[in-house]
Amino acid sequence: MVTALDFQLTAPILILTLGALLLLLVEVTLKSDSLRNGITAGSLVASFLAPIFFRDAYTVGQTAFGGFVYGDSFSWIANLMITGGSLAAFVLGYKSIESQKLSSKSEFYSLVLMSIVGALVLVSARELILLFVGLEIMSIALYTLSAFNLWSSRSSEAGLKYFLMGSMFSAIFLYGIALLYGLSGSLMIPDVANWVVTDGASSGVILLLALGLVLVGFAFKIGLAPFHFWVPDVYQGAPTVITAFMACVIKSAAVLVALRGLWVMFGEPTVFAQWADLLWILAALTMTVGNLIALRQKSLKRMLAYSSISHAGYMAVAMLAPGINGGAAILYYLVAYMIMTFGAFAVVMAVADTAKEGEEGDSIERFNGLGLRYPMVGVLMTIFMFSLAGLPPGFAGFIGKFYVFSAAVEANYTGLVIIGVINSAISCYYYLRVLVAMYFTKGEVSNLNVKAPAYALMVVCALFAILLGVFPGALHDMGVDAIKGINIPVGTVTK
Fold this sequence. Notes:
mainly alpha
């Protein structure tokens, strides 16, 4: 029987679904820009406020709709992160759709809302088929959004590549789910976890195959090397606002579901030891590949794409430390990463909008002299680059890496932390290269016309990039409370 509690715990999903349907009705009836923007903004604001309003409903062990949906503290913070990040993406992009030459705006916004719905289902699913449904709702909308700029061959190429590779890895992930069902006799995540604890050792190589397929599916969505090859082309070809949305919101959803899925289903100490070595290799490879290839990039969007790969590697380091410290470190890092990445993309969009026909709007050369001609924008971009590099005054990035590496050291992964620190030092080169272009390279930036919402987003992101590092306690404590609600098998949990 459906109860009021079920609707409270799934309110963001229901609100955004209704908003997407209303947008489609607006497109075929009124065609009003103000109404379209109002429905989109209203849906996003309401979906962000709903978990706050119903905070008391999210308690340890709480579920909705017959146990198919998690309603615990982890899903609460996941809902806030996804809806909050989506609202930031809307603020960043709704004034730039014209310059991006995107038509069918209602369909565009409707697809964005449906991709958010898929992400929310993904991070809240307690049953594996529902989890896969959420993954496909999110992915199918993103395939279309990546190719939405019909005037750009790169956008069409990005959508096609993402569709072909995403479909293949979705099939791999689904086959892993099928094997888990065949082994455990259940599709419920807690039931699979219990079976792994009690009978998993007797299944031998089949469990390892299922674990490997599921891990590969998660690695593709997060962008871990060597399954990262889709990220640069898709990020560069997609409309810039969708690139920012994917780099922040979608990556966060993938990391969150991987965190819960791997720790809960495969957190039994013997099984954990079997996939931890593989994740160690993936994390080291991801950090190294992402940073080294980013050194050669001339496109800032492509550089940020490889940067996002390296940051995925840093978060994978903390996944090797199941427990309160590792989980809180990942959640803190995700929030800090979203803040500094959204801010950087806001500046990139402002500069790219000044490009003439045929020019590379996101080329690093277009930032030559930016800091001298537009000092405030230059200062904001400086904060974002320092934060992404993990250097003051971008304290949020520095503290985020400190939490991640500290959790890994406590879990006895010192060697991986050394690799991470070396990669952080390498990343300073390409982040600071942007500052060299802005302040020490001659050039004349075209008239920059930063939209007021995007400018406000830059300022807010810069303030949070500083303040979250100076006062990290509140956000870290929220992460601790969220991780306490995850049922990790006893014996794996670190401090």
